[in-house]
């Protein structure tokens, strides 16, 4: 669908609303299937939506444009305004709006903040002006999902997702599988606010400087996804799921380590904690994208809180780390509409 087509073929249908509020989840990027296209198609990725931190966007009609953000959200607000401008150009809906960011995911932390913000602004805009665009079209319009479809799938449906890599024309990747994770499972989410992961030009340079992932390694990753991670999730079999996630991270961590100072974890304190967790209990550990966000999948809330308590007692939790116990989020972004007088 072209931008010009949006402007001429799909006129806006204004809604009498005060504001639309969109809650977009954080997502963990568990790894690329074949970043060097050694098996014939580039990238492909595995991701999962998680509870806990989220981006919350409010948008409604106003007398004139007004913009407001939460503490620490100035950069996100600038990006949100750029997304709004792109949506206006594409649709011709240029009525004044009130845009407010109530909360934002930390930028460049490995939680998919850029894609979740773009899609949340896009969905709020579409609901306000009656424009019919799904997450895939919004992602293309707002230049998200260039390599991975995990963020789009997390926004749209939540759960565990596998995508097939971007299409030849550069449009977002097709979704190959989506599975709801068992509700008892938990994620030990480890954030290091002192650091930021690679992004933009620095990310492109890092990727260009890496040798291609060997074909055998890509095949190993794909086998782990198909025969351990997906069956484990679908059948509520935690041990093979965790083993598959850890093996994928082991292979890809070694591949991407040269771009992270030779380490599989961008945050050394996060890596130390998660290696301790994996030695102590059955867990699927790794780093989301370029980090510094890291994770451990555990079989239950009780197990997650117990291992965290023992890790603190053992002195392996750096005081600067933020460690959360969160569930997987088996639904996508949710939207509420407050109508005038309602």
UniProtKB/TrEMBL annotation:
GO molecular function per UniProt: ATP binding; kinase activity
UniProt-listed Gene3D superfamilies: 3.30.230.10
Keywords on record: Kinase, Transferase
Residue ranges of every copy of the GHMP kinase N-terminal domain listed in the record: 84-149
Family matches, as InterPro entries: GHMP_kinase_N_dom, RFAP_synthase, Ribosomal_Su5_D2-typ_SF, Ribsml_uS5_D2-typ_fold_subgr
NCBIfam families associated with the record: beta_RFAP_syn
Protein name: Beta-ribofuranosylaminobenzene 5'-phosphate synthase
